[in-house]
Design brief:
Shape: globular
Largest sheet: 4 strands, antiparallel
Bound molecules: coenzyme A
Helix content: 25-40%
Number of domains: 1
Distance between the termini: 23 Å
Strand content: 25-35%
Strand order of the largest sheet: 1-2-3-4
Length: 174
């Protein structure tokens, strides 16, 4: 059974494997933690940063909630939810970030994560979420449209990982 759980020490090794797979495959659409920083102390070293993000106390960061995706004890991916709509969300990162470890892609996890993630967004009292997707990211476009994403527009965007690119914006009404 696929579950979205809060970050916890038990799954740090799985999280590191997932990050390593994305790094090894040069995935630019979603940049997780650099696996070289994930050591035995990492979870506790970073805990207060994630706690502050949830409380809106991390400078320059929208309120954000981080979940890990587990299927029958196996680490599959992650899901991030941002519950506010500042410029950074509207023009760059969107309300939702999600990724599946490369060895588990194409098995339906992406759609299931977004489906479960939208339920979490509802529980947070959100009425809609904005997904921002690189125009070339066919898999994510497919997932978003399958879960009710309505294309809003396509804008110019630029970041370190993806360079200059076109960014599709979709609303999903909850
Ligand atoms: C986007 C992502 C989460 C999708 O997860 P996934 O588990 O592979 O997705 P699913 O197995 O649920 O399949 C999604 C759909 O995309 C389709 N798809 C996958 N790769 C595709 C491609 N290169 N071109 C077109 N369609 C593609 C699948 O066929 C499926 O559609 P269908 O069910 O209608 O057949 C995953 O590819 C990923 O982690 N990518 C890197 C990080 C990322 O891009 N995150 C999103 C940033 S906006």
């Amino acid at each position: 059974m696929v579950e979205l759980i809060k970050r916890c020490p038990e799954y740090v090794a799985g999280y590191k494997e997932y990050c390593q797979e994305l790094y090894d495959n040069h995935v630019a659409y979603f940049r997780p933690t650099d696996p070289k920083f994930i050591d035995d102390e990492w979870f506790f070293r970073t805990k207060s940063w994630y706690d502050r993000k949830e409380q809106g106390l991390a400078e320059g960061q929208p309120i954000s909630f981080h979940y890990w995706v587990i299927d029958n004890g196996k680490f599959i991916g992650e899901f991030q939810l941002r519950t506010e709509f500042p410029e950074k969300v509207m023009l760059d990162i969107g309300s939702i970030g999600y990724a599946v470890r490369v060895s588990e892609q194409g098995k339906g996890y992406g759609k299931e994560i977004l489906r479960l993630g939208l339920e979490i967004a509802k529980q947070h009292g959100m009425e809609k979420v904005l997904l921002t997707i690189n125009d070339e990211n066919k898999a994510s476009i497919r997932v978003c449209e399958a879960l009710g994403g309505v294309w809003k527009d396509t804008i110019d965007a630029c970041n370190d990982a993806e360079g200059q690119h076109l960014l599709r914006r979709y609303w999903i009404t909850l």
